[in-house]
Structures are given as structure tokens and as C-alpha cells.
Amino acid sequence: MQTINPLVGILMGSRSDWETMKETARTLAALGVAFEAHVASAHRTPDKVIDYVLNAEGRGIRVLVAAAGGAAHLAGVCAGKTHLPVLGVPMKGWSLDGMDSLLSTVQMPAGIPVGTLAIGKAGATNAALLAAAILALGDPALRERLLAYRKAQTEKALADDDLSL
Ligand SMILES: Nc1c(C(=O)O)ncn1[C@@H]1O[C@H](COP(=O)(O)O)[C@@H](O)[C@H]1O
């Protein structure tokens, strides 16, 4: 999936991660951030991952989001091949409630950072917001859209405080 001149590259280890990672795509779309999303696995298609990451900056990508479940090596391998910010999203996976993905994404050796988000859809949403926040540092119009998104969220949370039986 691709919009024009993508600034954010979303990689996921399997198509089975897409249901969760749609939250990243939807949030970026809501903020008007151009992105692309691809299935690429450090285990199953390592050459595709390396090729993508090495060409990302030259193609205009500014932030990478890497999502994987189980033995989640994708984000770490991406980070090892680029100085672009890499945000890791651990997938809940098929066992261990995603703790395996979380730990294998977050526990990077010093020198090769992966900004690791929460497991699952919350992490997928927040990866988009963090990517947008990074891009907004140099994009005043995006900064305004991000502030409006946050304001709407606050207003919804306040409006939710009208409990009845
Ligand atoms: N952790 C990785 C990597 C990787 O780290 O490169 N590649 C695929 N996977 C993960 O394997 C899980 C099961 O994949 P399948 O559903 O295709 O069997 C997915 O969550 C995927 O991210």
C-alpha cells in the first residue's frame, strides 16, 4: 500500500500483522502524513528488508515503523542498517501474549536504538503519532494537524464523562 511521496515506511513481518498495523496506516492518513506499507521479514525475506532499508532515505522516507511478532527481529535489523528513526511495534502473536515480541524488539544493544511502542493496536496507533511528532518538528502545518488531533481526543475524553445507568 502506498500514498505519493511517502515519508513513513511501515514494514511488517507477515501479512497476518496487517490487521493490527492498519491502525498505524489509519492514524497517519488521518494526520495527512504520506506513508507506504509493505510485508518484509528479516527471517523470510532478509534481502528484501535490507534492500528496502538501504534505499529508504534516498526515496524520501524519514521514519521507519517495523512491526513483528514472536521472535521479532525486524525492527532491530532495520535499525542496524539505517540512521533513520526506527519505531518498533511488537505484535501480540500466537502465544506468550506478545511478551516475546516486546522483549525481542525493546532489548537492543547500546548504539542501535529502536523506539519500542506498546504491544498491539495501541502501539500501532502510537507509532503513527510518534512518527508524525518527529516529522512535525520540521513541518508547521503537520504540527497544527497534530495539535488538532490531540485537542479532539481531549474533547472526546471529557465528553465521555457523562455516565448514567
Ligand atoms: N518476527 C517476524 C519476522 C522478523 O522479525 O523478521 N518476520 C516474521 N515475523 C513474525 O512471525 C509472525 C507469524 O507470521 P505468520 O502469521 O506469517 O506465520 C508474525 O507476527 C510476523 O511478524
From TrEMBL:
Pathway: Purine metabolism; IMP biosynthesis via de novo pathway; 5-amino-1-(5-phospho-D-ribosyl)imidazole-4-carboxylate from 5-amino-1-(5-phospho-D-ribosyl)imidazole (N5-CAIR route): step 2/2
Alphabetical list of SMART domains matching this protein: AIRC
UniProt-annotated binding residues for substrate: 14, 17, 44
Uppermost EC category: isomerase
Location of the PurE domain: 6-157
Documented EC number(s): 5.4.99.18
NCBIfam families tied to this protein: purE
Similarity field: Belongs to the AIR carboxylase family. Class I subfamily.
Protein name: N5-carboxyaminoimidazole ribonucleotide mutase
